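Minutes, project check-in

Agenda point 3 was the complex the collaborators sent over. CS summarized: two entities, 748 residues total, and the question is how they sit relative to each other. Sequences were read into the notes so everyone works from the same version.
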Amino acid sequence: MMNHPPAEIGMRLADVDTPALLIDLDAFERNLHAMADNVSASGVRIRPHSKTHKCAVIARRQMALGAVGVCCQKVSEAQALVQAGVTDVLVSNQVVGRRKIARLVALAREAKVGVCVDDAGNAAEIGEAAAAAGISIDVLVEIDVGAGRCGVAPGDEALALARRVTSIDGLRFAGLQAYHGSAQHIRDYAARGRAIETAASMARGTVESLAREGVECETVSGAGTGTWQFEAASGVYDELQAGSYVFMDVDYAKNLDEAGRPFAAFEHSLFVYSTVMSRPVRDRAVLDAGLKAFATDCGMPRMADVESAAVLKASDEHAVVDPTASNASLTVGDKVRLIPGHCDPTVNLYDWYVCVRDDRVEALWPIVARGCVW
Amino acid sequence: MMNHPPAEIGMRLADVDTPALLIDLDAFERNLHAMADNVSASGVRIRPHSKTHKCAVIARRQMALGAVGVCCQKVSEAQALVQAGVTDVLVSNQVVGRRKIARLVALAREAKVGVCVDDAGNAAEIGEAAAAAGISIDVLVEIDVGAGRCGVAPGDEALALARRVTSIDGLRFAGLQAYHGSAQHIRDYAARGRAIETAASMARGTVESLAREGVECETVSGAGTGTWQFEAASGVYDELQAGSYVFMDVDYAKNLDEAGRPFAAFEHSLFVYSTVMSRPVRDRAVLDAGLKAFATDCGMPRMADVESAAVLKASDEHAVVDPTASNASLTVGDKVRLIPGHCDPTVNLYDWYVCVRDDRVEALWPIVARGCVW
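CS then shared the predicted structure for the full assembly.
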């Protein structure tokens, strides 16, 4: 019941049915290499977040370029990737409830699997299931370094939970999860750096407290596409979890670099391909892609190849564009590329990547973890 | 590669894995019957919109209660429903492009299929493909009755296109599509009624122009969950396309009735089931459902069973709730039901409905047209 792909390998881009999710392979590969080169120079490891792409082909490509494994947010996501050949997955999130924990433990027999905890009772449940299965699971204690979401407080609370984890059969204390989510989207470069300086200092303090108690902290993991340079340079973080860099989106492209210019280390490589399905009046072109074809939580998508024409609004299956200021004709049947406002929830709407190079479909990659929310 | 359901038939609701998309079967069935009874009393037909539910089981239930067929927005959606036994589908939307039209025509051999047009060139392409296949497709000319999206202008433009359609081999002019999308969400009852009065008058004028030219207009189709009573009473509309009434959502529940109270003809029957996965501090509970588990284009979901606790924000896989004003404990592992802000794009995120009655899972219905955007 997975949907058929809207394209065939070898066909011209213009013949791809719409809406379709495109990868510009040249731009995508430049992004992969840019991150791999940067990280290898920095001396830290990268464990890219696969919640962005949900695709085993991409995960394996990242690992071929030096990534130690990938992150997932959900056990079902990890299951889909492991089934498709990914050998090392950190669920960088809490896994709560008997059924989920059972799946996590079963998966840990098939691949190297880690998980985060921020609650002693939850840690005990995971340990019990793992011990009953005769295995041990790597556990990172999540600390809240400023994001205000999950995680215990750095310092004493983290220390207490880490000590608890070390005492539970079936668990192996593997370090700290210290991801600062909200810092990713601070536009100003220096302000972004300051947020990570604070986060790194909280993580450092916790590592030192642990060391004083004789608890070794093997790994501090965190970072995203907005901040990875800062964590890489912090001397505290060992592992970077950036994910969106493979695709970029309208939101991340608003982040500024040191000189106050849009951050240009990575390029847009992900597009929603769409057809002008109606052109009822001069100042309105209607596209065949709407809320079920792109996420709008970070705003409307941007037209990739059409100057001065904006997506004004979207409904379930339509987007309305005002083309009057543009010199593109946008007549019925024309196809356009949209840059998603937010790549992660956009990818989750599709079953296939249509991978394009030189205006030809070169590959179709299944989005195996699409819809894996549980 | 369709995902496994997060539940088994017969299990207690509390054992369902999360996030999951629940249907409260009692409320859902009351909604189905309430609409069927109302429409049958009004003397018009109902052709519910399946873009809401994307489920053949529900489409067949609607038809068993008197619906003449269903609407879809996409050819792929229609294909999925026809494959699952739905016999009459109107694609209440433009179908543009050679590949899409080929699929539409192929489908019209298997079921009764109609389509909307608002462009003469597009109509000619559909006619050519249909005639080449030796079939005829029912075509509604879409007129813009105030929504400002697709559709030609009522009156002369519509007349010209309708005459054109009648002259094209492979097409049968079947009437007008006159849906007023934006009127659905006007909160005030009288204002909503006035918007439909204007729409109905535009449709009536067009029907009369057609009649003067000797073109019979068999059907005027339109209406949604916000306005169906007005179209039903208009004397102009023959067919109602309401869809969201089966589930309702936070947005539609904001519409007011004649007395200025929330409109109570239909009940919330659709819920996102979610687990408290973290409770790091007193004023923050974190749920395991985020942007990939519910749509936020109409705002955050509402807590169904917890008083005075609001979903404050959502990220890809998390929602943050402030429970301080509530007397619910919301401790790690607790499960809650969320009412989606907007049901249609929420349903599109899931492969299965987990159908619940008396706290037991009674059925699992596949969402066969999930992801069918093309």
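Noted in discussion: The domain at 44-248 of chain B is CATH 3.20.20.10 (TIM Barrel).
Follow-up: revisit at the next meeting once the mutant set is ready.
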